[in-house]
């Protein structure tokens, strides 16, 4: 098999939540072990889920041998990370887990729907997903360790481009530059007050002797810390949002704060201990029901902002910088960027958010959309203005026009080569076995070890 290693594919593996049950197909258990790297296993279900992840995105899955090799690569990186003592901070895992769970709630509509869909409690799902998130973070850290400080020069990009036969140059889809100004729907005073009173009730109960951790586990809406009684672990100063940190650092050990409001919701905080420049706290977080928030205010606000921009009283970039609630794009004047390449040019194809694609398809370059309701990745209700900054029509790849994209391809190829070399050197440090069914895949160009014991389906 021709060896092709894709960093995007490697990053993809481990992203998807393990299916709660595994069916039977033609007498073969989907849960059988098909490869082993030291003490790490690749299951038949892992391979099938990876194939389905492509189907779910309307993409053609690579050959199974290539997918299996990528899964083995991930396990190899985990095995080597263990040997080399490469670790990730638990709070980074918790933060990523929070985002994943929020995304699931957004997709399924409620916690109850998630439980019904997977047939497992949220506690169990979080536990399973947490290990996958942690493994993915470790794999990413290993990749970064291998490819650190790697860059490409314009000369390398030119060499790559010139080596492509002119009749084989790829046809590039239409690309657009899009800016946005976002305003979040705000909870009403009544909604905030109801949450505040609940937290004050929890505080009173703790002061009367109830266990803070038990209340956090039962009531906190921070899906990352609730299972551990709201415990956030040790944090360095500056790691938490300012309102939370400011309130926590004013407390004495075991003291409980008043209700604190941040962008995440309303908190009740208990400081556990301090250690130099670090502090250890736990909290109970309550958030408004984002599905019930009124978007009338943000819509009117953006209508007024749109009017100011259209009569040239206010530049779009300044409006985004000064008034957008989405801080990830506000500092760049609202400009959206491709998550993989960092480019401001977004492919106007099936990879684009469908609602945005529909809107841009009817807009003229240089125009603003009407205020559009949408849901953020972490499940918040919001409204946004879209600015259609520019459009590059479909075309055959051109060195000058597509330099940024070509540069990204060359850098990816360079990193893949470095990872490939690392694998070749490191393969002797781990013991790899492959199920006889997949021996023809010849992982890394050769079969490793004896896999007879893997054929039993255990």
From TrEMBL:
Q: Which residues cross the membrane?
A: none
The chain positions of domain PpiC read 173-273, 276-387
Q: Which UniProt keywords apply?
A: Isomerase, Rotamase, Signal
Please state the span of the N-terminal signal peptide per the UniProt entry: 1-23
Single annotated GO MF: isomerase activity
Does the keyword section mention Transmembrane? no
Q: What is this protein called?
A: Peptidyl-prolyl cis-trans isomerase SurA
Pfam families, per the entry: Rotamase, Rotamase_3
């Amino acid at each position: 098999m021709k060896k092709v290693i894709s960093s995007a594919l490697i990053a993809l593996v481990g992203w998807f939540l393990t299916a709660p049950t595994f069916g039977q197909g033609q007498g073969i258990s989907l849960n059988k072990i098909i490869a082993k790297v030291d003490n790490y296993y690749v299951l038949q279900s892992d391979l099938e889920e990876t194939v389905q992840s492509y189907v779910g995105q309307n993409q053609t899955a690579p050959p199974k041998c290539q997918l299996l090799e990528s899964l083995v690569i991930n396990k190899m990186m985990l095995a080597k990370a263990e040997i080399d003592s490469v670790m990730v901070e638990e709070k980074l895992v918790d933060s990523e887990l929070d985002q994943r769970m929020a995304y699931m709630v957004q997709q399924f509509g409620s916690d109850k729907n998630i439980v019904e869909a997977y047939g497992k409690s949220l506690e169990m799902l979080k536990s399973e997903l947490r290990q996958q998130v942690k493994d993915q973070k470790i794999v990413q850290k290993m990749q970064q360790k291998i490819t650190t400080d790697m860059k490409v020069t314009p000369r390398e990009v030119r060499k790559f481009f010139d080596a492509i036969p002119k009749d084989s140059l790829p046809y590039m889809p239409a690309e657009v530059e899009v800016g946005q100004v976002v305003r979040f729907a705000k909870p009403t005073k009544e909604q905030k007050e109801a949450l505040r009173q609940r937290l004050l009730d929890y505080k009173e109960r703790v002061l009367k002797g109830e266990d803070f951790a038990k209340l956090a586990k039962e009531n906190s809406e921070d899906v990352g810390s609730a299972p551990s009684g709201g415990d956030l672990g040790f944090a360095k100063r500056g790691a938490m949002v300012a309102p939370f940190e400011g309130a926590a650092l004013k407390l004495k050990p075991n003291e409980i704060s008043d209700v604190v409001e941040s962008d995440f919701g309303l908190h009740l905080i208990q400081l556990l201990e301090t250690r130099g420049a670090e502090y250890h706290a736990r909290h109970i977080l309550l958030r408004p029901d984002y599905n019930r928030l009124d978007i009338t205010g943000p819509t009117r606000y953006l209508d007024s902002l749109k009017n100011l921009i259209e009569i040239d009283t206010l530049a779009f970039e300044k409006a985004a910088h000064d008034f957008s609630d989405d801080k990830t794009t506000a500092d760049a004047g609202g400009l959206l960027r491709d998550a993989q390449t960092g480019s401001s040019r977004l492919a106007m194809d099936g990879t684009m958010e469908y609602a945005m694609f529909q809107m841009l398809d009817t807009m003229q370059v240089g125009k603003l959309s009407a205020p559009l309701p949408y849901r953020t990745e972490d499940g918040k209700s919001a409204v946004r203005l879209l600015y259609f900054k520019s459009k590059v029509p479909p075309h055959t790849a051109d060195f000058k026009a597509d330099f940024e994209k070509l540069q990204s391809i060359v850098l990816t190829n360079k990193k893949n080569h470095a990872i490939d070399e690392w694998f070749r050197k490191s393969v002797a440090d781990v013991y790899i076995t492959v199920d006889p069914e997949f021996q023809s895949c010849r992982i890394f160009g050769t079969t490793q070890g004896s896999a007879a014991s893997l054929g039993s389906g255990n």
